[in-house]
Write a structure and sequence with these properties.
Blueprint lengths: L2 H20 L4 H4 L1 H10 L8 H14 L4 H16 L4 H7 L2 H12 L4 E7 L5 E4 L12 H4 L9 E8 L6 E10 L5 E10 L4
Antiparallel strand pairs: 1-2, 1-5, 3-4, 4-5
């Protein structure tokens, strides 16, 4: 994105906040339109990449028989590894082709993408740009309000301050479909509102 376009988007975001405030709507709502536009103009163009679609399909087949107890056990293992020196499960996911693809997209976003991760049909991580605190997103709004609602769904969450960067961000989640239009997974993108 060129500097002029980024400046225009930042100006649009500021104007959206002012317009919403003037209309009596909350500042929390003002971010939804610019984040939605960013996702539609940028992320929506690459979520159908064969690297992402192929990896989700393969993981859906692999995980088809998992029970909720199995999923909870995997999530518990992941959480333990996040804090441990030895991280075979975390490192395997961070080192796969989807994670590499997502890291490249994050790097080329010039700060607009704070984090990005892809989930399978059960809400388990397929790949991510950075380590997530948990492996299972299936019990969270980001998954339930995207994949759980069907295709063509984009859910923009509330604005939060990132503790590490102190930047304002919002997570946007959308359903990922295969070439037939069948929902197969979801993606969540942490959008840095100050870098749009």
């Amino acid at each position: 994105m060129t500097f002029a376009i980024r400046r225009h988007v930042a100006s649009s975001l500021a104007l959206a906040f002012i317009a919403f405030a003037a209309s009596g709507a909350s500042a929390q709502e003002a971010h939804v339109a610019p984040v939605t536009d960013y996702i539609k103009q940028n992320v929506a163009t690459w979520v159908s990449d064969p690297v992402i679609i192929g990896a989700i399909k393969a993981q859906n087949v692999k995980n088809a028989g998992l029970s909720e107890a199995d999923i909870i056990a995997l999530d518990k293992k992941w959480r333990a590894e996040v804090e441990a020196a030895d991280k075979p499960m975390v490192n395997a996911t961070l080192g796969n082709a989807v994670s590499t693809f997502l890291k490249d997209k994050q790097a080329s976003s010039k700060g607009a993408i704070a984090e990005v991760f892809v989930m399978d049909a059960k809400g388990l991580n397929v790949g991510q740009s950075d380590v997530t605190s948990d492996y299972w997103q299936g019990d969270e709004a980001k998954f339930k309000k995207s994949f759980g609602m069907g295709k063509d769904v984009l859910f923009v969450d509330e604005v939060e301050k990132d503790e590490s960067t102190q930047a304002l961000q919002s997570q946007a989640s959308m359903t990922i479909v295969d070439e037939t239009g069948t929902p197969i997974g979801a993606i969540t993108v942490g959008v840095n509102l100050e870098s749009l």
